[in-house]
Design a protein that fits this description.
Shape: globular
Radius of gyration: 20 Å
Number of domains: 1
Keywords: Membrane, Transmembrane, Transmembrane helix
Helix content: over 70%
Largest sheet: 2 strands, antiparallel
Structural class: mainly alpha
Subcellular location: Membrane
Oligomer: single chain
CATH architecture: Up-down Bundle
Membrane topology: Multi-pass membrane protein
CATH topology: A middle domain of Talin 1
Distance between the termini: 56 Å
CATH class: Mainly Alpha
Strand content: under 5%
Pfam families: Na_Ca_ex
Strand order of the largest sheet: 1-2
Protein name: Ionic transporter y4hA
Order of helices and strands: HHHHHEHHHHHHHEH
Number of helices: 13
């Protein structure tokens, strides 16, 4: 990379936004922030989100699918898990259900919000959203299995009172979650990678493969973007934690259920993936959008449950994982509708609208249970 290109690269806002957000994180860490400081941190968080999307797309273009969406999904989830553990350590008894609330919110947001917005964006531009049914169906089946093992079964087990796993059951759920996620990644990236590649229709007016055929960024630029992606995601999650006391106090003062905190945190953390997925769908790369959405849902469960299971060694208090009846109904509806969406390998505005309606119902019932 020449000196001129390097100077131009360093002058971009996508380079400075993550660094400024990290500075805001360092200055705000562990402090009670006044109102104006919360606003500044929120602005820095928004800049870091947009920068993370840019750098994720650079990395994705360099490594290709499905590795690009996998990098962003795993990176976001790893930092999301760190945020959940940190909040549970600092939150006291009220945080006993935080992992469940955040993970379930992530599943609903990804499987309904990101999927719905992506299908809507693609269908508005190309009339029909086309994707690979084999890969999307396999991903949805894995998400449904992980969600049932980790979030539904604790409600019905009898070894411990309440929606809790016994230590042995939690260990089994953690090992099964990690094993299934690892198996899926192996299938996605090695054995059946073609199932997760973008599908396009040459006969569809305006259909385009987007940046699939454009020149990939250089190795140094991609490596630099990977570093900045990690920095931006750390800033996103750290700044989200910095404003979380304000979120919790606002939720409490409004008389809303504490579960709303988990929903807001999930919405903030998943913003980079949401924007990246919608932008890919607008370029008719719907499979990349679904890889991001379902891969994120899978990683949220497959990585969070094992880490939380390990963290229970030093975390005090119960760990509530089982969903209530309302959320189980929404999860079942999501799986059924998701299956009907992915089986044909193509979707219209209607499918996108149905998924968004389910997400709207989840958010409304979180606010007004």
């Amino acid at each position: 990379m020449s000196a001129v290109n390097l100077t131009s690269f360093l002058s971009r806002w996508t380079v400075w936004a993550p660094l400024v957000a990290v500075v805001a994180l360092v200055l705000s860490w562990g402090r009670d922030l006044p109102g104006f400081a919360v606003v500044l941190v929120a602005v820095c968080l928004a800049g870091a989100v947009l920068a993370a999307v840019h750098h994720a797309e650079v990395v994705a273009h360099r490594v290709g699918e499905p590795f690009g969406s996998l990098v962003l999904a795993v990176a976001v989830t790893v930092i999301e898990v760190a945020l959940i553990v940190t909040l549970m350590v600092d939150g006291g008894p009220e945080s006993s259900s935080l992992a469940r609330d955040t993970v379930f919110a992530a599943v609903m947001i990804t499987c309904n919000g990101i999927v719905g917005l992506s299908l809507l964006a693609a269908a508005l531009r190309n009339h029909v959203a086309v994707f690979n049914a084999e890969g999307s169906g396999a991903a949805l089946a894995t998400v449904a299995t992980l969600a049932t093992l980790s979030l539904v079964l604790p409600t019905f087990t009898t070894s411990k009172p309440g929606p809790e796993f016994s230590p042995a059951q939690l260990t089994f759920a953690a090992v099964a979650s990690l094993g299934l996620y690892g198996l899926f990644v192996a299938v996605q990236t090695v054995r059946h990678r073609e199932y997760f590649m973008s599908v396009t229709r040459d006969d569809e007016p305006g259909s385009t493969a987007g940046d699939e055929h454009s020149e990939a960024p250089g190795r140094s630029a991609a490596l630099f973007s990977l570093v900045l992606l990690v920095v931006a995601l750390v800033a996103v999650v750290g700044d989200a934690k910095a404003v979380s006391p304000t979120i919790e106090s606002t939720v409490a003062s409004a008389g809303l259920p504490h579960a709303v905190v988990g929903v807001v945190i999930a919405l903030l953390v998943l913003l980079p993936e949401t924007i990246a997925a919608v932008r890919a769908a607008r370029r008719n790369l719907v499979q990349r959008s679904l890889n991001l959405a379902l891969g994120s849902a899978m990683a949220s469960i497959g990585l969070t449950i094992p880490v939380i299971a390990l963290a229970t060694i030093w975390l005090e208090g119960p760990l509530l994982l089982g969903l209530g009846a309302t959320h189980m109904v929404l999860l079942a509806l999501t799986v059924v509708v998701g299956a009907l969406t992915v089986v044909p390998g193509r979707a219209t505005l209607l499918q996108g609208g149905v998924h968004l309606a389910i997400l709207a119902a989840f958010i409304f019932l979180a606010v007004s249970p």
